[in-house]
Amino acid sequence: MDYTIFFDQIKDLFPTIEINNSSDLTESEFKIKYGYPEVPVLLKSRFNDLYKSINFRELDEKFHSKEWNFDSTTGKAETKMSLEDYFLKETTEYYLKTNIRDLDFTIDYPNLFKCWYKSYPTEKGKKELVWLYYGNKNTFTNIHTDIWKFNSWLLLLKGKKLWFIYPKAYNSIIKENKEKYGIDMIDTLMNGSIKPFITVQNPGEMMYVPSDTFHFVINLEASLAYTGNFMNETNYENVKQYFAKSDNSNNKKFINSIIATGMTQLKIKNL
Question: Which of 8, 30, 260, 264 is most buried, most CB within 10 Å of its CB?
Fold first, then answer.
C-alpha cells in the first residue's frame, strides 16, 4: 500500500494530535501542559536550534562509510548492506536502528526531556535508550507502547512520518486485542468507534508520546529519526508500577533508587 495516497483519503476522518508552535516553550510549561496530564503533542518549532546544529554532511558521511546490520520488519534474520543499497532496493522489509555511539557522531540530547535513568550515577550497565532510525518509504512501527512505561520523544531529521496515537482512556480495550487497532486494520479504523489521533511530522519537528500510550507510525517518505525514552517526575509512578510487577528484585531496587535520587535532586532544585 502507498500510505501517502491513503493518508490523503483519511486525513479528514480522524481527530488531530495537538500541535504547539511555540519556539520558546519552557521545561516547566511543557510539564504542566503535556508532561503531567500525559498529552501527546507535536512541537513544531521548539527544537529548531537543535535541528540546525546538526552537521548533516558529516552525519551522511558516517552513514555511508560502511555497511550496517538492518533489522527485519517481518521477523526475519537481520541482513547486512550499505545505506545506498537499502535506498536503491526500496525495501520495506528492513530498517536500520543504531545508537549514536556506534555511529561515532554527536547530537545534543533534547533539553526539555530530562531523564532520571540517563543521569543516574552508577557503574552498573544501563540500557541504551537513545537511537537513530532509518526507514524507507512505507516502512512502519506497528501498534505498541514504549519500553518500561517510559515517555518517548522523536525528532525527525529527514523525511515525513504519519503518526497514529490513541487516547489512554482506550488502553484497557486495546490491550484485549491490540492487533485490531494496528496498521493491519488501518482500513477499518475510520469506521470504528475507537479512533486514534493523527498528524504528519516533518523535519525539525519533535513528537512527544506519554508513558503507556498506544501508537503506531508510518514513514510517508524515507525517514531518519533521532529518538529516545525517558523517565522523570512526570511518569515515575507508571515506571514504578511496571517494575513492581517484575520478578527481578534487583530491577525493582535499581528503579526505586533512581526514583529516590531523582526526587531528591528535584527537591534540591526547587528549594
Answer: 30
